[in-house]
Amino acid sequence: MLSTELSCLLGLLAMGALAWNTHPTLAQSFEDLPPATQDLMDQFKAFQIQYNKSYADPAEQERRFEIFADNLAWAQQLTEKHGGMAQFGVTQFSDLTEEEFHQHYQPAQSSYKEPSLKTRKHPRLQRPLIRSCDWRKAGVLTPVRKQKKCRSCWAIAAVGNVEALWAIHYEQHFELSVQEVLDCDRCGKACKGGFVWDAFLTILRQRGLARERDYPYQDQLSRKGCQKKQNRTGWIQDFLMLPKEENAMAEHLALKGPITVTINQALLKTYRKGVIRPKDDCDPNQVDHSVLLVGFGQNTKDGAYWILKNSWGSDWGEEGYFRLRRGTNACGITKYPVTALVGREDAPGRPCPR
C-alpha cells in the first residue's frame, strides 16, 4: 500500500481536485517525460494522454491515481530486483488493481483436466543445436493482436501458430479469424478463457478458418453465434504436445516454426522491456496466459532468453513482444508447449533467421 507520506500528498492533491483535468489534452506522452524527474502527477497525466484514459469525477480520478502510484512503486521494485536486466513501469494497465487486472486478463479456472495429448518423441538434448532463432525476421508472423477485455489469449496464440506455420511451409501469408474460434468453440469458454488445444480442436472441426477480414474480431461472442463461412483457409492435420524440456522446445522452434506456450503472467502487467528473470515471484505451476513462442537468443548482457509474442497490442512491451529467461523453466514455460501440425512432418523446414 501507499506510504504515510504519499497518502498525505494525495490528500492535499484531492483538496485541489478541481484543478485536475479528467480529459487531458496536453500533447505529451509518458515517453516524453524524464523517468526520475517528473512528479507522480505529471506521469499520471501523461499516462492518461497516451492511453486515452478519463474518469467520471475527481473522486474516481484520485482513486485511480492512488492505484497508479502503487503500481509504479511496485514496478520500480521489480526493476531494481532485476538489476537493470529488465525495466518495468507504466503500461496500459497502470490504473488497474490486481483484482481488476485478473478479472479482465486471467482466464476462469477450467472445470476439466488436461487431456492426454499426443506427444512427440524426442531425445533429451544437452544443448540446443542452434544458438539463436528469431522468426520475426522471416516475415512469417502476423501483426500483434490486442485481445482487449476478452480473455482470448488461448485462441490468439493458437491462431498465430497456424498462421506462422502456413507462411513457413506454404509461403502463404494471411490473418485467420480468432472470432470464429471463439464463436464456434465447444470445449473452451470463449471470452472467459480456454486452452490452446480447445482452439486447435475447433480448427479441426471447422476444417480451417475464415480470414480475419471476413470474420473480424469483436472481443466478445457474436450475437449471431457461430457463422458458417464458405471460404476456409489455414486448416491443420493435427496438433501435439512437445517434450516439456527447453532444449527440445528450442530445436523444434528453430526447425519447424513458432509454438504455443502457457505461462504465469504475474510479471507482465508492468513490463516494458528487457529479459524477465523471475525468482520467487512467478510460480511455474500456476500458468494462466497463452502466448506464441517465436524465438530465442543469448548474449553477454542478457544471457539466454526466449522471445514471445503477446496479445496486448503493439504498444505494450517490446512492440508487443517480451523476453523471458531461458533454461530455468521461467514462469512455467515448459508446462504446455503445444503446436499445430501443418504439412508433412518429415518435410524439410525453412531456416529460422538468427
From TrEMBL:
Gene3D superfamilies: Cysteine proteinases (3.90.70.10). InterPro entries: Papain-like_cys_pep_sf, Pept_asp_AS, Pept_his_AS, Peptidase_C1A, Peptidase_C1A_C, Peptidase_C1A_papain-like, Prot_inhib_I29. It comes from the Eukaryota. GO terms for cellular component: extracellular space; lysosome. The keyword Membrane does not apply. SUPFAM superfamilies: Cysteine proteinases. Residues 44-101 form the Cathepsin propeptide inhibitor domain. GO terms for biological process: proteolysis involved in protein catabolic process. Keywords: Disulfide bond, Signal. GO terms for molecular function: cysteine-type endopeptidase activity. Coiled coil: none annotated. Residues 1-19 form the signal peptide. Residues 129-341 form the Peptidase C1A papain C-terminal domain. Pfam families: Inhibitor_I29 (PF08246), Peptidase_C1 (PF00112). Belongs to the peptidase C1 family. This is Cathepsin W. It comes from Monodelphis domestica. The gene is CTSW.
